[in-house]
Amino acid sequence: MLSRVHSVGVRGVEGYPVLVELDLANGLPGYTTVGLPDSAVRESRERVVAAVRNSGFKMPPRRITVNLAPAQARKEGTQFDLPIALAVLTASGQLPGQDWPGRYCFVGELALDGALRPVRGVLAMALEAKARGFEAIVVPAENADEARAIGLKTFSGSSLREVADFLSGARPGLDAGRPAPACVSDAYGVDFNDVKGQALAKRALEIAAAGGHNVLLIGPPGVGKSMLARRLVTILPPLTHGESVEVTRVHSVGSGRWTGGLVLRRPFRAPHHTASTVSLIGGGPAGRPGEASLAHGGVLFLDELAEFGRQALEALRQPLEDFKAVVARARESVEYPARFQLVAATNPCPCGWRGHAQRGCVCTPPAVQNYLGRLSGPLLDRIDLQVEMSALGFGQWAGDSQAAESSAQILERVLAARRVQSVRLGRPDFALNAYVGPRDIRAQCELDAEGLELLETAATRFSLSARSLDRLLRVSRTIADLGGSPGVRAHHLSEAVQYRSLDRSRAQA
Predict the structure, then answer these.
(1) Smallest Cα–Cα separation from 411: which of 209, 261, 203?
(2) Contact indicator for 313, 305 with CB cutoff of 8 Å
(3) What is the CATH number of domain 192-400?
(4) Does domain 2-168 have CATH number 1.10.10.60?
(5) What are the structural domain ranges in the chain?
(6) What is the reported pTM?
(7) pLDDT in tens, 52-81
(8) How would you label 278-307 residue by residue, b for 16+ Cβ within 10 Å and e otherwise?
(9) 195 neighbors 404 (Cβ within 8 angstroms)
(10) To bridge 417 with a disulfide, which of 46, 330, 351, 481 should be the other Cys (CB 3.0-4.6 Å)?
């Protein structure tokens, strides 16, 4: 007897159809799985056999062959347990296989007692099932909201017995649920008016939020670098529906078992400075996405930037330029989205007190040079705003916090600037100056004679690369958008130049 049940696999953050074919043949009892299964799929044999028996069914004493098609694609994960068990029941005549195998798609891990356990990547699977025209998808109860979030009819069950009874007609139906609710609040619990002083750094973060630019904050300990960085997400617009689907799909694959609906809050990821290249970019035996991809649509905060490993930092260059992270493995290459804003913070020297008004720095010039030399030129080229911060005086610290602008006030200006960019670029999503190509940004920043002279002076004095000049124009364009100016003027360029702190320091050295 032969039976077929449809399922879905995941490669990267994309789903692909998998047809579970099961054949019962005469001969010595046995169980073989083919179709390039990984260890988790091969071990499904033990889970399926125990789940079938403990759910009140009989495991046929026949030679069982399970084929996961297409055979040339490697199958990973535990989501094939449920469709394999249903194929066993159908082929052995314990479950009528009428029209449901062609209408529904099944995913889910089985416990030994037949209970259904949640799996990774259900949103990607549901999107693929919807694209393939399936009427509904059947998932574990804990994955139900995630699957429903994209508008596909979803049935959720808690056990193999429940699903089998539903398919046989013995059970009137499974939980079809309701439209998935928003799973994450959009409140971050922090606000820009918590930060005293640091007007230049606040202005830089406002520019960064308006244009999608990367930022590096440089200053001694305790000046508010981390405090400011953690508040950048509060002045970023809410995720659009398309962005929410992308972000949720990445987190569903990479963050373990995601059991909510769509993510509505922009991600904020802050890995420790001991993070490896694999943890930042992705990879490992399972090829999981790294912090760069988990920050997709949000902010990646690297505190103590100069303390990160050189190899890990250099690996970030590709995501910063191409907005994707490519994980190369022995058999295949997986691509994850990685469109994030980088916010980094570092001390100005090994001891941290260089430039402090009251505390003297004990570092020698070579030590300072070696410390900042860990940040390569190509990496700094990809950071648009480099801001030096100084320690606050007591008067600033004790000042009235009510006078400081709130995140909501700054967000209004950011939204206005983004609307201007969206109209100019003609794209509703990711229509930001930071993503505009060199040719287009030069066309949008037609400089007068004064502006060209200022740009030439900055390029000569600070030895700016072509990439740095393009990024300088992008920042200038964002500053002009915030000011409501249709064109880029010399004073916009001048403000953008002051945010190249490390370039100026190296030129003076």
Answers:
(1) 209
(2) yes
(3) 3.40.50.300
(4) no
(5) 2-168, 192-400
(6) 0.87
(7) 999 999 999 999 999 999 998 889 889 999
(8) bbbbbbeeebbbbbbbbbbbbbbbbbbbbe
(9) yes
(10) 481
